[in-house]
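Lecture notes, unit on binding sites. The following record was shown on slide 14. It pairs a sequence with magnesium ion.
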Amino acid sequence: HHDERTFVMAKPDAVQRGQIGEIVSRLEGKGLTMVGGKFMQIDEELAHEHYGEHEGKPFFEGLVDFITSGPVFAMVWEGADATRQVRRLMGATDAQEAQPGTIRGDLGNDLGHNLIHGSDHEDEGANEREIELFFDESELVDWEHDTATWVYE
Ligand code: DAT
Ligand code: MG
């Protein structure tokens, strides 16, 4: 369906390196629609909730430190198959291994500092859970690009 929503975030490294625009641009270019956006600082509690699935892993504390180390740009994007499409644009988790042409492959060079978060398309309902964690329904805008009929058949 055209109306799937997914959670995306430009991480602190992307914000510090001035790559918010580049990330937004790539998602716009794909024909996805931004329906929410919030420049914010993640606190310890939100970091633990957001990355709860990784609690107990050796990299967890470093991950929490990193994601709270500076502001992020949290977003909700909408489109057909949006969760999986964003993951395709992001590339592999380890930016050193991510394919050129992907956001991580083109802009990153590290496993932890990999610029962008996107909901896991293999984790059923992760997109909706993460959207709810970061956004109030009233912060999301229901709208359509006038060009949508040229993106989708
Ligand atoms: P993704 O961000 O691609 O969904 P993930 O959910 O497995 O990847 O992990 C969340 C973040 O944690 C990831 O973006 C970078 C970091 N991370 C994952 N595995 C790691 C590891 N083995 N060592 C250090 N950091 C890791
Ligand atoms: Mg993940």
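Take-home: The pocket of 2'-deoxyadenosine-5'-diphosphate (ligand 1) is lined by residues 54, 59, 63, 93, 111-112, 114, 117, 120 (CB under 6 Å).
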